[in-house]
Amino acid sequence: MFDVRVRLGAVLTIDAADRLLPSDGPVTLWVTGVRLVANRPPQDEWIWVEGFRLGPSGRHGRQAQILVRASKLPPDGAAQ
Prior knowledge:
Blueprint lengths: L10 E4 L12 E10 L9 E9 L5 E10 L11
Antiparallel strand pairs: 1-2, 2-3, 3-4
């Protein structure tokens, strides 16, 4: 079983290269939910990270669900 620890409330900066099918550049996300993906692409671990996008000023933007490479998430929930 694959184990990823991302704390709710953590703030993550996720590069476009670490997301599945990105439509824009890096995203800063305030995490409100995390779940494993059962039907993930073979030979890679992906995690759904849910939360609110944060602007440069730290202001909350729209809600987002982002499919992220698990290997790029901090194992202890620390901000990147």
